[in-house]
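R.M. (postdoc): so does anyone remember the format we settled on? I'll just put the structure tokens first.
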């Protein structure tokens, strides 16, 4: 399913106020890999591009530590931008080449959680476009969750996970499961194939901090039910009634309150553009 402006993301999760708030709460894995932070700290006024920036939350997180940096966010849609004046935003489809005047402009190009908007053939294209933006010696940091391997786990002996598990599996249709299987596991090889060097990878578990498990699972619940309600409103194939959605949501909330939590791995890939 492809939106006319290339915005596949909005077909699944939308870009309304609820989704904007959810994205701002979805913080996992590295903010900056130590090697990336070391590079930026050596540059007096680093230029940083955040692709598929969404709300711009990554740039707002960076702003406090990199007050002299030029922070630029690019997204196919402006609907969720929340800048607070710390970053400049421009519309851009990361699946298409950037203007020539931006080539070689950035010390860091950052990409995060793009998987829901990616077809299997998109990953290399987006990487190529990101590399064009890098200065020699610049770095790409790309984080993606292994969403094809999501599990809902009982946190206590009396926890229930049946509704959250059912909804998660229902969201991952055969076509969606194929989409979610690609990318996160291929990024290091894609980076090597595109000529990046000093490639590093890291894997972090979403449930590594017990105190964040409930909030993260709640974040996922909001995404799942936001998608269900949007598909119902558009009367898309497989949509269910609002009454059934309300019933399921009550059961999902009970699952989470009982100690059910979500688990998946977050993969980070870092690659440097050779100095030549």
């Amino acid at each position: 399913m492809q939106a006319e402006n290339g915005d596949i993301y909005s077909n699944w999760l939308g870009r309304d106020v609820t989704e904007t708030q959810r994205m701002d709460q979805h913080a996992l894995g590295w903010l900056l890999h130590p090697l990336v932070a070391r590079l930026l700290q050596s540059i007096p006024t680093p230029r940083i591009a955040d692709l598929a920036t969404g709300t711009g939350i990554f740039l707002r997180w960076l702003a406090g530590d990199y007050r002299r940096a030029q922070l630029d966010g690019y997204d196919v849609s402006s609907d969720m931008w929340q800048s607070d004046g710390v970053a400049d935003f421009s519309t851009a489809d990361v699946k298409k080449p950037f203007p020539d005047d931006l080539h070689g402009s950035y010390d860091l190009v950052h990409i995060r959680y793009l998987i829901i908007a990616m077809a299997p053939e998109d990953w290399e294209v987006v990487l190529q476009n990101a590399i064009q933006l890098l200065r020699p010696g610049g770095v790409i940091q790309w984080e993606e969750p292994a969403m094809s391997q999501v599990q809902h786990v009982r946190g206590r002996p009396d926890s229930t996970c049946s509704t959250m598990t059912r909804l998660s599996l229902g969201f991952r249709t055969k076509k969606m499961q194929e989409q979610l299987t690609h990318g996160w596991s291929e990024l290091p090889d894609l980076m090597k194939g595109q000529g990046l060097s000093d490639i590093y990878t890291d894997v972090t578990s979403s449930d590594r901090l017990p105190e964040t498990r409930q909030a993260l699972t709640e974040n996922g619940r909001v995404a799942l039910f936001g998608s269900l309600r949007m598909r119902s409103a558009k009367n898309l194939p497989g949509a269910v009634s609002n009454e059934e959605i309300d019933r399921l949501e009550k059961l999902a909330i009970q699952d989470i309150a009982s100690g059910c939590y979500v688990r998946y791995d977050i993969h980070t890939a870092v690659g440097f553009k050779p100095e030549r």
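R.M.: ...and that's the designed sequence above, right after the tokens. Also worth knowing: The first strand starts at residue 47 and ends at 51. Strands lie at 47-51, 70-75, 88-91, 106-112, 134-145, 151-154, 197-205, 260-263, 265-272.
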